[in-house]
Amino acid sequence: MHEVFKKYRKPLMILSLAFAFVIGLLVIYNHTNTVYIMGALVHPFMNDAEEYEGTLTVAEMVDISPERFHRPSSQPALNTKYSFLDLQNTHETVPTFKNPEDLIKAYYGLLREASNMDGYHGGCGTIGFHKSPYPYAWKLLTEDYRKELPLQKFIESFNGTGHTTLLKLHPAWAPPDTPEGLQYYMVEIEVITGPEITSETKNQPQPSYFAYYYGLITVEDTGREGWKIKRIDYVPEDFLCAPYHSWYWDASALVEIVYGNWYGIIDKIDSIDKNDCIYMVYAVGNGQLYRFDFVRLTNGEDLLIRENIKFAGVWKETNLLKEQDQIYKFSILNPRLQ
């Protein structure tokens, strides 16, 4: 046996090294082949929940108008506080942000005045400040994010983007083991884009159109450089799914099915309060009070972002969803963002 091993030791070593080399190439390829859109990783929307339990339709919910799901946003743009002219300077440096929300507003304030429509239909000349704001926005990312997404790749990820508007910005839930100096924010953006110019469409009029994304922004306190954007995850909004399929898109239905039917922790929904685009579902079970906070998206879907329990008269944020059900809350634990 020893002689056999000696005889084949060299070929086996060569095969082992070759295998390790191939694995290394695959890792590098997957790392460098990551596709970014508008500076972010883009994930699929949730369309596989219907298998769990039934389907709701507008006809069954008399207080819901079909226009809730099939109209563009009527919400005013969020005040981003900062503009490209506010931040523009000869050295293309960016301020140090001590507040994470100001950082995010500055990022989208820059993108609002940037455009990259070369090779795409839309516009009748220069749009905004063209590509000039992108280097400033890029410098608001962490060093690791910039290494993963170099400036030229960052700019190219905005191909076909003519205008970006920040519509919503809300703190998102952070798990108890979240490192200090790390926070999460839910955003919704509106984008104006157009079809790519082809030989067939070059001389044909083409429409511009609106697209909507919601996302999770991970921000990090880097110390000397202040708050920076560590990661951006977007999910495109579908305007033709709800209300025709499933039930997860309605706040009251999600609370009743998940926390009532599945978990048995609530007996009934007491009330639903609305504060701008935030819908708060109040429920009770076994004498305990619960509040579930949802964001109403432009496509009409309700997005769960926080779960709260009332202790001694004070609402405490918590996590009630089981691991296999984290898909129903938009947080860093949502498997769609992994």
Description:
With 338 residues, this protein is an alpha+beta fold. It has two domains: 46-54 and 243-337, Alpha-Beta Plaits; 65-236, no CATH class. The protein has seven helices and ten strands. The strands form two sheets. Strands 1-5-4-3-2 form a five-stranded mixed sheet. A five-stranded antiparallel sheet has the order 6-7-8-9-10, covered by helices on one side.
List key phrases describing it.
alpha+beta, 5-stranded antiparallel beta sheet, 338 residues, 2 domains, 5-stranded mixed beta sheet, 10 strands, 23% helix, Alpha-Beta Plaits, globular
Mean pLDDT equals 86
Biggest sheet overview:
5 strands, mixed
The N- to C-terminal Cα distance equals: 47 Å
Instruction: From the alpha carbons, calculate the radius of gyration and give it in angstroms.
Output: 24 Å
**Overall spatial form:** globular
Number of helices: 7
**Helical content, roughly?**
10-25%
Report the uncertain regions.
14-32, 55-59
As a percent range, the share of strand residues is: 25-35%
> How do the strands line up in the largest sheet?
1-5-4-3-2
The counted number of beta strands is 10
* Number of separate structural domains: 2
Counting helices, strands and paired strands, the structural category is alpha+beta
Give the H and E element order. HEHHHHHEEEEHEEEEE
